[in-house]
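Key result, reporting period 2: structure in, sequence out.
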């Protein structure tokens, strides 16, 4: 008969992902439910599969990219505190290692990561790669992309700004290894040229629209010209809700962070779907695919939408 201590060790070796150190912490993810079905063949590398405590794969039979989204929200449904300098996902997750790892893993799977101008502006210096958000596994993420035949080391970074307010001096646009793209309108491009001159220090693609671009045009361009088969949408809410409205979201990876922060009197703190209003007639229902748990009480939910 095993002592309680050894029973726990045996249980943890059998049922939890092994231990990976990031900021001196133990990375520990346990799968509580997995209804995704068996992968056709092993997709993740062994180390990534162990760290994620299971397989992660995507199949796309659509004539456009499969669109998956990743958000972290508080128990009361908030994704940004909207406090200057403290409005990002890190404040929402409590700088949680497992959340950073999952974010990195999704970026490693993606052909492109998309963000809205406000999310971009609130993350100076950030680049939307797997290794940037979870450096401890940088080599592993690269090995994985190579193993699954991705044609670039990093996903294409796509910044969306209808009005062309993007700061093109950000390091993303000078990075030698990361391909990046600004999707904007005629009006946005004119504003950027006014500010930076005729030769812009970034790749800009123009799409039709007065200030706002129809998400289906963004998706069609990425599919046809940039070979994007898996698009990871990282928000924020203003951009993401326009995708929800056009039914252009296939899966949602939602981290529930166990804190309650309050919406405040001004009610400026958004949910990931703000500002659209769907219920009751047009509510979007999700089908639960998997649930994972991390040691500080974060839950990782995967829904097919
Ligand atoms: N917790 C999380 O997981 C998470 C994830 C992402 C973001 N966030 C946070 O959410 C906040 C930002 O969210 P947000 O909703 O304020 O802004 P956002 O969606 O990141 O960016 C909004 C801007 O994107 C452009 N945009 C949006 N939809 C567009 C469309 N259809 N066509 C063309 N341009 C479009 C517009 O830029 P122009 O005005 O230049 O036209 C708009 O002002 C930040 O604090 C960020 O850190 C949290």
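The corresponding designed sequence is given below.
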């Amino acid at each position: 008969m095993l002592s309680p201590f050894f029973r726990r060790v045996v249980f943890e070796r059998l049922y939890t992902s092994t231990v990976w150190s990031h900021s001196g912490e133990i990375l520990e993810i346990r799968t509580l439910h997995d209804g995704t079905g068996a992968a056709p063949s092993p997709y993740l590398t062994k180390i990534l599969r162990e760290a994620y405590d299971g397989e992660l794969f995507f199949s796309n039979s659509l004539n456009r990219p499969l669109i998956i989204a990743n958000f972290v929200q508080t128990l009361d449904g908030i994704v940004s505190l909207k406090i200057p300098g403290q409005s990002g996902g890190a404040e929402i997750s409590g700088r949680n290692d497992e959340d950073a790892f999952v974010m990195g893993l999704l970026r490693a799977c993606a052909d492109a990561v998309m963000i809205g101008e406000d999310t971009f502006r609130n993350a100076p210096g950030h680049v939307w790669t797997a290794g940037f958000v979870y450096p401890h596994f940088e080599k592993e993420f690269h090995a994985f992309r190579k193993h699954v035949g991705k044609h670039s080391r990093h996903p294409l970074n796509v910044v969306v700004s209808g009005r062309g307010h993007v700061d093109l001096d950000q390091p993303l646009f000078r990075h030698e290894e990361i391909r990046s793209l600004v999707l904007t309108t005629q009006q946005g491009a004119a504003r950027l040229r006014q500010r930076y001159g005729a030769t812009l220090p970034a790749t800009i693609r123009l799409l039709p629209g007065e200030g706002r671009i129809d998400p289906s045009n963004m998706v069609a361009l990425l599919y046809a010209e940039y070979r994007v088969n898996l698009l990871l949408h990282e928000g924020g809410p203003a951009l993401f809700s326009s995708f929800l409205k056009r039914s252009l979201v296939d899966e949602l990876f939602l981290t529930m962070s166990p804190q309650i922060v309050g919406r405040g009197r001004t009610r400026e703190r958004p949910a990931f779907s703000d500002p659209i209003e769907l219920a009751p007639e047009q509510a979007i229902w999700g089908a639960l695919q998997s649930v994972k748990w991390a040691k500080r009480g974060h839950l990782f939910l995967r829904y097919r939408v």
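Residues 71-72, 79-80, 87-89, 92, 115-119, 122, 160-163, 165, 212-213, 234-239, 242, 270 surround NAP (CB under 6 Å). The CA atoms of residues 253 and 302 lie 5 Å apart. This case is discussed further under Risks and Mitigation.
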